[in-house]
Amino acid sequence: MPTAPTQALKIFRETTLPGSLDAYSIYMIAPSASGMEDYVEMYVTDSSGNPRRIVNRSDIDTMIGDAIGAANELSIVADITARDVFVVPGTTTGYAKYVYVVDATADATVISGGATYLYNPAVGIAAWIKISEAESLDVVLNWGDIVDGPTSSVIDIDDAVSIRHSHTNKTQLDKIDEDANGLLTYDGVLPLTGWQSTSW
What we know:
Elements: E1 10-14, E2 25-29, E3 41-45, E4 51-53, H1 57-72, E5 74-79, H2 80-86, E6 97-103, E7 115-119, E8 129-133, H3 154-162, H4 170-173, E9 176-178, E10 184-186
């Protein structure tokens, strides 16, 4: 036969948690504050009357806010070593860490300066992903480093641009026009044909 319980469970409905609580009890607290009419907190007491509260809406809101805030927070560390120990595996889960490393040259992909990384807690240190470099803020490209760039030299291209409307006979070319009838003119008059012979 089942053993008879040695302690009866008590259930209380209150608007505030009493200062002194009964052991082995459940307290259902319905706050009377405006906007909280449909809201209930639950407390369960142990053999000494010490309460343990069930997670409530405020707790959940706080946890969500903390997680979102931590995900967007940028932390700054001195170097790659400090970056790798910044997040202890297993202590940060559920969101990425955003870290700027002041001296990231220990990363083989960083020639000089700092870099920014995201950390995926599901994978560990190997999950540090570089998303930017301070070095790229002052990028200077050489002509020969441009992929699929022009084959002509910079000097030749600049020269072609500077003389794109330059002609040795520009003065003569500027005299060519047409009259109101659409006839070709030169220096404002119809062009004349010169004699090939002037023997008479």
